[in-house]
Amino acid sequence: MAFYPQSAASTLRFVADSLVPDKFDFSIYSSIAIFVDDKVPLQFYEPILNRCSADGVPCRHVSLTAGESLKEFEGWSGILDEMAEAGLDRSSLIVAIGGGSLGDAVGFAASIWNRGIPWIAVPTTLLAMVDAHLGGKTALHHGRIKNRIGSFHLPQEVWVNPDVLQTLPVRELRQGWAELIKAALIGGEPFFNSLENGIPENLLPSEELIRRAMEVKVSIVNGDLKESGRRKVLNLGHTLAHALEMERTDQGPRWAHGEAVSMGLVFACTMAEKMGLAEVPLTEKVSTLLELSGLPVRIEDAPETDVLLDRIEKDKKSRGGRVSWILPERPGSMLIKELSREEVRDQLTDWIQKG
Ligand SMILES: NC(=O)c1ccc[n+]([C@@H]2O[C@H](COP(=O)([O-])OP(=O)(O)OC[C@H]3O[C@@H](n4cnc5c(N)ncnc54)[C@H](O)[C@@H]3O)[C@@H](O)[C@H]2O)c1
Ligand SMILES: [Zn+2]
Fold it and tell me: What is the total count of domains within the chain?
């Protein structure tokens, strides 16, 4: 596994119009492979293709169907075949243009090709902009376990152009808003308060909001790449969310990740308020923002409390039956508390019944 010092960081750039930063020099690479989500319009990434050919570098452009199947070994191994076709060696570069699934799959391939070659992440979903493409975690699924295989391999640069979100379906935009609201709650009062009149009806966030959410994640990750300490606060809302994401219908998971995180955030705030840790009315404020983004804030037809608790304990955050919960005191101040099953059960039952 590649070693990164604790202060490792990707260069983040906001790019308008021509997607490629002016100063970026493709000609220093021996060859380039560009992997693109097939839902992303050509005109968005054409400037990258043009710049590669202008710089005279052999460049292979590969279109991929994104989604969780790209993170299954069978789907993912095709990426390695394309990398071989592109003739990638230690002096090559990979560019990944897409959402979190494509970034996780291509980033992992970059991390093991020749024991790790550089890659550039170009996020095309809101979730990838504010979360998935930041922080260097790459992942594949194995068996039925999500993200079981992976590595830490920071992209060398992250290029963000919010215009690409205009083609993103609204349900996908909402997934990003759940993480953006989480980032604001972790980030502090000025960011959190700015959301109170800042959620646009079309759910297309301003560059400023995206930038602030990115800064929250990056500032935490830069100090704790391997999640040995402070990075854990980024799991806010995710303890319950992971258990909810295991609920399935015949059509697939009942809730998308951001929807589960939304309910998880509300529950974390509710529990913190009930324990006298959070300032009232934090839960109400957070719920309002999530609802404005079209996200669920209570569970309908909830699974049994004990089923959820079993899943939570099996999740990797459980130690000897006690589970780490991230509990907000107020925007900008998070507590990490280990709670027993009994401490959580009453709260969860109560919260579910109120729904
Ligand atoms: N590595 C990390 O730190 C990290 C963090 C959070 C999530 N993730 C991973 O990210 C994945 C979810 O990412 P996601 O929400 O971006 O999903 P995704 O990559 O599956 O993209 C969602 C859908 O949007 C489409 N799409 C992408 N960009 C588009 C655009 N501009 N216009 C139209 N359609 C577009 C895709 O084809 C796909 O159908 C999960 O696999 C999750 O495990 C990773
Ligand atoms: Zn998440």
Answer: 2
